[in-house]
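Aim 2 progress update. The chain analyzed this quarter is reproduced below.
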Amino acid sequence: MLYPLSYEGGEVDGPVDGAVSGPIAGGEPIAAHGTTPTLRGMRLLFFHGAGGFDEDRGLAEGLGSALRASVDYPRLPDQDMSYAAWSATVGAGLGRVERGDVIVGHSFGASILLKVLAQEQSPPRAAVLLAMPDWSPSGWGVPDYQFEGPEPASSISLHHCTDDDVVPFEHLALHAARLPSAQIHEHQAGGHQFEGLIETLAASIIGRE
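Predicted structure tokens:
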């Protein structure tokens, strides 16, 4: 879908995530900044996409269930789409991370997470970036969001589905060129929300622990 994307200094029309209200698959909705009790101490910190607080909750809770992890799901600011506003919330979330936690960013949330990780003095050990847009002139061309390095010290995994109808699959190759140390995962189907791939994603994350 096409949504107007506001950022510091102006507005640009670009394909970004829209918010869709609906029930959470497999259970009750998870609360922002809350946790879901589990039998294990692992926690999943999940950063949703632009306007995707409702839409991405199913993906976040599905991953949390597959990992048997509690879910920390902060609401990112829809009213201010600047990097400064989103990076403040992402940075606060990273400040709560403990050893053994899993960090995932989806779509626009992944873009902001990557830039924040590159600036962290003591970054977490690993992060998983799902369906991340490229904001360079070769991609969607928004300087405020563009990743210019350096490559984060965190171990990065990139996942993208070939049938993603929101963020073009071709963006994955652009990221791979800028992040030569990253693990690249191409999925033949699953769309922007990685439908049917929860267990695959979880297995990949566990394999890196």
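The chain has a mean pLDDT of 83. Residues 83-94 form the longest helix (12 residues). These observations will guide the mutagenesis experiments scheduled for the next reporting period.
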